[in-house]
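A further point concerns the way the authors explain their paired sequence and structure data. Each protein is reduced to its one-letter sequence and a matching series of backbone shape codes. An entry of this sort, consisting of the sequence and the corresponding backbone structure tokens, reads as follows:
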Amino acid sequence: MSLNMASDRIHVTNAAGQTVFDTNRRMFAITNLLTGTVSIADKPSNNNRMQRATTVLGSINSEADFVMGQVKAVSAPAGGGLPNVGVFSAGGTIVWGWYREDVQRTMRGLWTITFRAVSGQLLLEEEWWNQNSGTHPSLNLTLVGGTLSYRIHAGTFI
């Protein structure tokens, strides 16, 4: 193991000469930790138009531009959402719900959620589209909402 400190840099290598720590590499600096729950409403059929909604979950440091953490679906009505199936990474987009007709094998709806740090706010952004059944056009299909529990670290790479 080797430790080198020079010119405002700390560089550590292991016995094989591989770098294990280097202050020249950008590191994630956590500025805020936000925890809580948020309810997301059902999404009825919308004639196949992309829809978007943004929910402000809280204030964070204005320098924060990246999030990582975890989210769990803690409740949803029977037959919908992803209740109690595990904890998901909140550093990207999560597919919350979808609908596909088995007869036609056609996607009829999709719903995604994304946590983002923007301008000093932690946001939950939703995007979805949903259309009526192709097999039964009078059937109004609904993507089912629920409650999310989240633990999000907001920060920036320095």
Q: What stands out?
A: The CA atoms of residues 41 and 85 lie 19 Å apart. The mean pLDDT is 82. The radius of gyration is 21 Å.
